[in-house]
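User: Predict the structure for this protein chain, please.
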Amino acid sequence: MRSLNNRPGRKEGLPRWVSVLLWGIAMISVFFMGIVMVQRTPFIRGTANQAEESAKEGANLVQSVESNEALPDSLAPIVVPTAQSLKRDELINTSKPDRGNTVSQTYTIESGDSIYGIAKHFDLKPETILWSNYNVLHDDVHNISVGDELIIPPGNGIYYEWKENDELQKVANKYHVTVKSILAHPANKLDITNPVIKTGEFVLLPDAYRETAIISPVTFEYSKGSGVKKVISGPGGCAWDYAVIGSGGFIWPAPGRSVSGNDFWSGHLGLDIGAVEGAPLYASDSGTVIYSGPIGGGYGIMVMIDHGNGYQTLYAHLSSTAVGCGQGVSAGQTIGYAGSTGNSTGAHLHFEVRYGGGYVNPWNVL
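Assistant: Here is the predicted structure, written as C-alpha cells:
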C-alpha cells in the first residue's frame, strides 16, 4: 500500500533556510545598487544659507535684465590705444592719376599753375616735368604760360624722344640709367629679347637725370666809372655804390608766410611766395637797390638789392616798384608791390637769395 505522502501530483516545498538565504542575497544586492546610484548623481555642495543667497542673486540678475532702471544714463566710451587701433584713410576725390598708369598724358597750364605744383599734383618730381618738356620750357620754369600744353610722363625720369641712329646703351650712359631698367619699365612696352624703337617714339628713362641750365635774366656789365660796382643790363639798372650795408639776417619779404607755386629746387633757384595783387613787399635786409624796373627773361618788373656783404636778394613779377636804383633801403622797407608781370600765371613774389654769385636756398637764411 502506498503512503499518502507519496501520492502523485503533490510538490515538495524548499527548505526554510534556502528561502532565507535568497531573501538576504536580494536585500544586499538592492543596498549596493543604491550606493552606486548615489555616487553617480551630481549634487551642489554648500549650506542652506548659501543656497538661499545664491537664489536671491539670481533673482536680482533676472530683474536687472527685465528692467533698465539700474543702468546709468550714459555709458563711458571704450578707448582703444592708437597703436592698437585701425585707421581708415579718408576718401578723397581727386583727378590725380593712378601712378600705375603706363601711358603719358597732356596737361594744359591754367592760371595759378607752376611746374612745382603740377609735378606735385601728378606725384612726379618737378625736374621730370622740366626735362620732359624742353620744347616748351627750354629748361626755364619761367617760360610757363597759360594755355601751354605739357607732357606728363608715366613715371619719374626723362621722357626721351628717340632720334635717328640712337642706341640704347649710348642713351642709357648719357642719362645715367641702365639699359635693363629701360627695357623693364612697363611704360616702354619693349621686347627685352629684341627691342625695337622707332625714330620719334618716346621712351621713359626711369630715374634718369641730366644737368639743368641755370638761366637768369640778370646779366651784369662792368661800369667804367671809378669805384662803381657792376651794372645790371636793362632799363632798371644804374651806376651805383654801396649806400647801406646789410646785417646778414633776413626777414620774410611779404605779408603772408606761404609758398605759392614753385619751391626751391634745381630747376627753380628761388622761392615763389604767396601774395595778392598789390600787396606790399619788403626788403629782406638792408642794402642798396641795384636794379628797379622791367627786365627780360620772364621776371617782369624786378627789384634787386645788394647787401654789401656778399649777399644779394631779388624780387620779381612785381606790379610796380617803390624804390629807385642806387637808393639805400632798410630791412622791412616797402620796395614794391606784388603782381603777375613777366611769365607768371598769377600774382606772387619770386624771391631769390644769392651769395658770391651763387644761388642760396632762401629757407636756409629766412
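The CA atoms of residues 100 and 154 lie 8 Å apart.
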